[in-house]
Amino acid sequence: MKKLFILLLMLVSVGVILLGNLHWKNLNSAPTTTEAESTDLQGETETKDEASKESSPDGKLSYTGNWSPEMRSIYENKLEEGEAFNLVIAGSQAMDAVEPGWNDLVADAVKAKYGDTITVHSFPYDSNSFDFVAEAKAEEIADLDPNLVIFEPLTLNDNSLVRIEDSLVHIQTIYEDISASNVGMELVLTPPQPVHSPNWYATQISELEKFADNEGYTYIDHWENWPDVESEEIKNYLNGEGSSPNEQGQKAWADAITSYLITE
Q1: Where are the beta strands (DSSP E) in the chain?
Q2: CB-CB contact of 196 with 219 (8 Å)
Q3: pTM of the model
């Protein structure tokens, strides 16, 4: 009887020790109320910090990583003075081929990141570069006091109507007409849309890119976002017989411009 009693006592003791040890582990593995609250507060703080960064002047300035030092400086000064930076998008009627056009997509992206610190204006033109210059269309752009102008030279509209040599001269004239009353204004060039099997038009685009490089213009080559111009796939990015960009084409174009304007 005595041995049985001792055996039972030992079993009870072992059970108590095991239960106590299990309880102790549970206590140590579960976060305390204070720790849980601390974790929640840390998450909230990180979210607030991110929102604060995007709304702060320094946060917005961080998006301008691809801009020229001159444009960054102008934008920073505008932020300090509480004034809006003026961005103008000008080009052919292609941006109005569908809604939203590439200009609209860019404007929406800029608004989402920069808020009211950047004002975006768009000007589509259904004309060639000769008529654009002859009719002094650059004046309506200049009247907005632009800081940065993203300009699609009317190279495709010029095709078979204006020599590429003259078309390039017109770009320089347009820049001079706008900058005459807007000291420090910068002109950034982006080519018209690609077309299927462009032939001579591809040579004109090549000359445009060389001109931009030689004259020191920033050149945003959105053609890199499109399928190969000799492939059938590119037709999926163009309307009808390939005369203008459809929704996919507008997005391909807009993505390139947005990537330049907004550095993530």
Answers
A1: 85-92, 118-125, 148-151, 186-189, 218-219
A2: no
A3: 0.80
